[in-house]
Design goal:
The chain has a single domain (about 1-275), classed as Muramoyl-pentapeptide Carboxypeptidase, domain 2 (2-Layer Sandwich), CATH 3.30.1380.10. It is built from eight helices and eight strands. The protein has helices spanning about 1-40, 125-140, 150-170, 175-180, 215-225, 240, 255-265, 270-275, and strands at about 75, 85, 110-115, 120, 145, 195-200, 230, 250-255. Helix 3 packs across helix 4 (about 175-180).
Length: about 280
């Protein structure tokens, strides 16, 4: 009799855990779907011209970019005068520089580890990402990854959809392409294609807005993410260097050593590479 009761309890617990896992998966999927709806609506700040027209993409760190120059490239955007942008100067996988002036290398390959909710990240940073998320939850918080690895096809679809909506609103095809590039990253210039970038929000406020910085999850991440090798990629005072507006939800894996230096010295990735690359 006791054996029967033990078996019944075991199966009851097993079914409960399976239900919890299914619930978490569905919840993150819904966050992801809501994210894609928001993504095309996020407004940009300073914009770039020529081959750089980019801005939010996390909700979208968007940007447009042509070929990498062989040397440094001066940006032509408003409020960006006098800023010199470096060409990627690191061959380390965790420090690859992707921005309006540095496209993803043509031969770049990524091995993905699947997450719940249809998300995926570079397998090399998966274990420490899991640790960071677990520790954040252990602190009584509820972080949700609403976007991670993004395929080139997905990026192409995003910018095409944005252009279509602009044209439907009465914008000419030529102007629609320019305007779309201000809020959606051109394929090949989005960090999400690396598998090293994540958009993480607080479940209590899943909006891709500046107010995200005030949520308990973001406060915890901004103070602790560097310990796991992740940095807030687009700080509020670095837009002229990153080419991207402030995004208090976009985290990038750079490795524990680099993240510690960037956090302590308040450097963005561009500054870190220029100083230590």
């Amino acid at each position: 009799m006791y054996l029967r009761i033990t078996v019944l309890i075991f199966f009851a617990v097993l079914l409960f855990l399976m239900g919890v896992e299914k619930f978490m998966s569905i919840r993150e999927q819904r966050f992801s779907e809501k994210y894609w709806e928001q993504t095309e609506e996020v407004q940009s700040g300073d914009t770039q011209t020529d081959d750089t027209g980019k801005q939010t993409e996390d909700g979208i760190s968007g940007q447009l970019q042509g070929e990498n120059s062989q040397e440094t490239v001066a940006a032509g955007g408003s409020g960006d005068e006098g800023i010199t942008h470096i060409r990627s100067c690191s061959d380390q996988w965790n420090l690859i520089l992707v921005n309006p002036w540095n496209a993803i290398p043509a031969d770049y390959q990524v091995e993905l580890e699947q997450l719940s909710g249809g998300q995926a990240v570079d397998a090399r940073c998966y274990p420490i990402l899991q640790q960071m998320m677990d520790d954040c939850r252990s602190a009584g918080l509820d972080p949700v990854i609403c976007s991670s690895w993004r395929s080139r096809e997905k990026q192409e679809t995003l910018i095409a959809n944005k252009e279509y909506r602009l044209i439907q609103a009465g914008v000419s095809e030529k102007d629609a392409a320019v305007e779309a590039a201000k809020t959606v990253a051109a394929p090949g210039t989005s960090e999400h294609e690396l598998g090293l970038a994540l958009d993480i929000v607080d479940s209590s406020y899943p909006e891709l807005e500046t107010e995200q910085e005030d949520t308990p999850v973001q406060k915890w991440l901004m103070e602790n993410s560097w310990k796991y090798g992740f940095v807030l990629r687009y700080p509020s005072d670095k837009s002229a260097l990153t080419g991207i507006i402030y995004e208090p939800w976009h985290y990038r894996y750079v490795g524990v050593e680099a993240a510690k230096v960037m956090y302590k010295e308040k450097l963005c990735l561009e500054e870190y590479l220029e100083k230590y690359g």
